[in-house]
Fold:
Amino acid sequence: MAEHYRLIILGAGTAGLVAWKEASRHTDQLLLIDPGPLGTTCARVGCMPSKVLLQVAREFHTGRRLAERGLTRDTPPVPDGAAVMQYVRRLRDRFTRGPINLVEKLGERYIEGQPRFIAPDTLEVDGRQLSADTIIVATGTRPVAPEPWQALGERLITSDTIFDLETLPKRLAVVGLGAIGTELGQALAWLGVEVHAFGRDDRVAGLDDEPVNQTAFEALGQSMTLHTGHDVEVEATNSGVLLSFGEQQYEFDALLAAVGRRPNIEDLNLDALGLPLQDNGLPAIDPQRLRAGDTPVYFAGDVNGIRPLMHEAADEGRIAVYHALHPDTECLQRRTALGIVFTEPQIAQVGVGFDELPDDALIGEADFSDQGRALILAQDHGLLRVYADANGQLLGAQMAIPGAEHLAHELAWLIQQNLDVETALQLPYYHPVLEEGLRSALQGIRRQLNADRRHPDLPLCGEEDDPLAGAVAPPGPGDE
Structure:
């Protein structure tokens, strides 16, 4: 006879652990199952160790830039590859300690093992049958590495293995120009590795706004050699990796595969759900409630492929529990979409994508090559493009600029609060700051609205106090 629970969660990553915390507010009839290793993808092999590597690399890069400007007497420091990787692992282990400890404290409510569905509401783990009112699948993803590349052995690197390198290779091929490939590729290039990055096309980090994409592409090309337009063919040699790209051949010490991730579902026996499975092996999933058909099974986090980012996985853990425990309630609204890549310049996308804009959308731009704060930071490159509808309602943005991690948040907050361009321009902007570039982009949209502006972009005390009521004012300060 199966052991029964109110809720079973499969996966101890971000989505699974957040789901556990949320569900524990409502019931203690919970069970968490994960085959290991523990530590969450973000903390163990994703966003956290990659940002440590990037930060160390950026500090070496800054030293070289000081020397290039003639501002130092000594030569810039040379990275010690082994020491760098030890440092990254030391911080990585610190980041993983918290989620590991959380799971270990669960005692009998955590099972280390590989679950397998035998019915929509029943699992089997190491001979034990476990049933539940609802089950949340939060098993995450893993890097894609094409089968022919497996012949490379230890010379094949993925985001799951790179942080365990004892030292750095001299020459590295990065295949894939998404967020993972561009971040890790640029970091290693700054650390003295000769990096060549390969992509089928010149789209970087998923950007679909061509002027922004071209800006990012050109900037990344200053630190690593970029190749686009062909598929790669890979062959193991006695000394390393032979990569064929079009009619060219290149030799490397190792290859970093950054061509995507696939859901960890092969051993779950999802056929037992009784639903048709798609090409990715998953059933159709309601993007709002995260439920698979009419089953009691919900898919949260990267495994569902809807918004595969850490903060989205956390939200999806909450959403899945909310609807699992309250299936007939109104759905929860998602936050404004936000994605950030920590290269230089930083790349970000907010809200509606460029390809999704209405035909009458308005676009405002800001070029950071001559922006005051960017010049001070010695990061005077980049382009910001902000989108609004025909009435000036903010919709989204794409950018490859310094400080994108901050400006993207500010724009996401404006969009989620349903603010329009006029209202956003009434907010304070200090000097000199990168946000002045955002103001320039917003002013570009306002000029396209052809609205009769009676006053500078400052909030009014009240209509009765406006001495310019009924008049059209000249442009305010900064309205170049």
